[in-house]
Amino acid sequence: MCYCDEQSKFEELRKFIQEKRNDKGALMPVLQKAQEIFGCLSYDIQEFISKELKVPMAEVYGVSTFYSQFTLEPKGEHIIRVCLGTACYVKGAQAILDRLSKELNVEVGKTTQDGKFTLEATRCLGACGLAPVMMIGEKVYGRLIPDDIPNILKEYQK
Ligand code: FES
């Protein structure tokens, strides 16, 4: 969940910007700090940074979207990564991804409404011998079939 309207968080960010304002290349550390505080760089946050740091919005947006470490939308409590690398793909990873999307009622790349899960497709996770593979947080699940999904999700829905 993104608490993007919380005043105290904006105050914390304002203070940080004031400290960094005169540094060359301040935008990058400011964006990192904003992401740390808010968990995302939503439009409101980018606008705030642009105004406070006196950097054009186009530049703030450009840097925010260029680096994969930044996310414009808040991530869920649990991040599910389904491998779509070759070994997993040929063993039915797409069906795993589809089942997750259906069970959670969320599109790939998005977060569930309750903020619990973010569903992502990813490249090889380095566990091809266990294909098809997914990770929830740091935990690896291998040799999956779509019918495994509801039970696995239950562990996280408690
Ligand atoms: S292709 Fe999926 S873990 Fe390597």
TrEMBL record:
Gene3D superfamilies: Glutaredoxin, NADH-quinone oxidoreductase subunit E. SUPFAM superfamilies: Thioredoxin-like (SSF52833). Transmembrane segments: none annotated. CDD domains: TRX_Fd_NuoE (cd03064). [2Fe-2S] cluster binds at residues 83, 88, 124, 128. GO terms for molecular function: 2 iron, 2 sulfur cluster binding; metal ion binding; oxidoreductase activity. InterPro entries: NADP_DH_HndA-like, NuoE-like, NuoE_dom, NuoE_N, Thioredoxin-like_sf. Keywords: 2Fe-2S, Iron, Iron-sulfur, Metal-binding. Binds 1 [2Fe-2S] cluster. Pfam families: 2Fe-2S_thioredx (PF01257). Its cofactor is [2Fe-2S] cluster. PANTHER family: NADH-QUINONE OXIDOREDUCTASE, E SUBUNIT (PTHR43342), POTENTIAL NAD-REDUCING HYDROGENASE SUBUNIT (PTHR43342:SF2). Belongs to the complex I 24 kDa subunit family. This is NADP-reducing hydrogenase subunit HndA.
